[in-house]
Design a protein that fits this description.
This protein is mainly α. Helix 19 runs antiparallel to helix 20. The longest helix has 15 residues. The chain is globular. The relative contact order is 0.04.
Length: about 375
């Protein structure tokens, strides 16, 4: 029996050490390290008998996320339904967590079932569990249902939606593409005396700027400033994305200067927006300069943005070096841009470099890419 298993087998003794923080930490680490998902599920269910374990939100979220990534939805249901045997299920906070976890796995029907069972367990339904259900609906992309929930359930439960409720429904409308409906909710919040916060504005700004509604987004920005809500890096990044779409890189650079003057540090998304702006303008040298200047290294989004552009401009040296950089820095990227560079190199009779990338795709130690030299197809 492995050490973590021996720990787990002793977890049901009545000694204080068997439920202490160090012991629970060992159990949690054992679950995090478990690579066999079936054993992970079994360990999780056994560990759930420990009260301290059930209070650890991180292990619940992490386990559900792992199983969802592996598309093991039946096992997600198994571990979450298992929780209903504990007395915690009569507490709204615990039940709201289960609802939210089902939402993270896009299992809205299960989330709704847990919510509907609450009265039968003498579990109070307040705005807390309502918000959890609303969030589960949005995370499950059930956009056609979320509006009905928002309008009907508060009256049925005798509750009033709060700031979290409005932020959730605004996100739903933005994700659905109903930007004007999302913006209208700002006025409804004002009528009800609910003050929008930075999350409210960032959700709206991202939706409007990224969808080419620049003028409307600027009005929302002005409203945010007038309400003394201080923008953060996410706010600025949304605005920079809007400027990139509008091909206004000069204003984008001025905005980055404003960020720095306000001690808001640019991040990788800031530089992505700047590079995107220069790509949209067809300015190869500035796009390359800002990539090199960013210091943020390679990531999947920047790679996908830059590679087709530099290939189109005929700068295969830069494209080749970008590809080699992804391998040396162990960066996970889509295969299509890599294959594009291989094809362009082969077309220009740069066979040695093309085959080098094909070989790197096969032999790197972190992700195999099935790249093909054109003559092999």
């Amino acid at each position: 029996m492995s050490f973590p298993s021996r720990l787990l087998s002793r977890s049901f003794s009545t000694t204080a050490t068997a439920t202490g923080p160090k012991f629970i930490g060992s159990v949690i680490r054992g679950i995090y390290k478990e690579n066999n998902l079936k054993r992970l599920v079994d360990k999780f269910k056994k560990s759930s008998d420990l009260g301290r374990f059930r209070t650890n939100t991180g292990i619940y979220t992490g386990t559900v996320q792992r199983l969802a990534n592996a598309k093991r939805f039946r096992w997600i249901e198994e571990i979450l339904e298992h929780q209903k045997q504990y007395k915690d299920i009569s507490k709204e906070g615990f039940t709201a967590r289960l609802i939210a976890l089902y939402g993270k796995a896009a299992m809205f029907e299960n989330a709704r079932k847990v919510f509907d069972e609450m009265p039968g367990r003498n579990c109070e339904q307040t705005v807390l569990s309502f918000n959890a259900l609303l969030g589960a609906c949005v995370n499950s992309k059930k956009f056609d249902e979320v509006d009905g929930l928002f309008k009907d359930l508060p009256h049925k439960l005798g509750i009033e939606p709060d700031l979290v409720s409005y932020n959730t429904i605004i996100k739903a409308f933005v994700d659905k593409g109903s930007l004007d409906s999302a913006n209208t909710l700002l006025y409804e919040m004002e009528k009800k005396g609910i003050r929008p916060d930075l999350i409210t504005f960032n959700t709206l700004l991202l939706g409007f700027y990224s969808n080419g509604r620049f003028a409307d987004a600027e009005k929302i920005w002005e409203t945010m400033v007038n309400m003394n809500v201080r923008p953060n890096v996410r706010s600025y990044n949304a605005r920079l994305d809007g400027l990139a779409i509008e091909k206004q890189t000069k204003k984008a650079l001025e905005l980055v200067g404003e960020m720095r003057s306000k001690e808001i540090n640019p991040d990788v998304f800031t530089f992505y927006a700047l590079i995107k702006g220069f790509v949209n303008e067809g300015n190869l040298e500035e796009a390359k300069r800002w990539y090199n200047k960013s210091g943020c290294g390679m990531n999947k989004a920047i790679f996908k943005l830059l590679v087709p552009f530099v290939c189109e401009k005929g700068d295969l040296d830069f494209a080749f070096n970008l590809c080699k950089s992804t391998f040396s820095k162990r960066c996970l990227v889509d295969q299509a841009p890599l294959q594009l560079v291989v094809d362009r190199l082969a077309k220009e009779l740069r066979v040695k470099e093309a085959k080098e990338l094909v070989e790197l795709g096969k032999t790197n130690s972190y992700c195999r890419y099935n790249l093909k030299f054109p003559s092999e197809e």
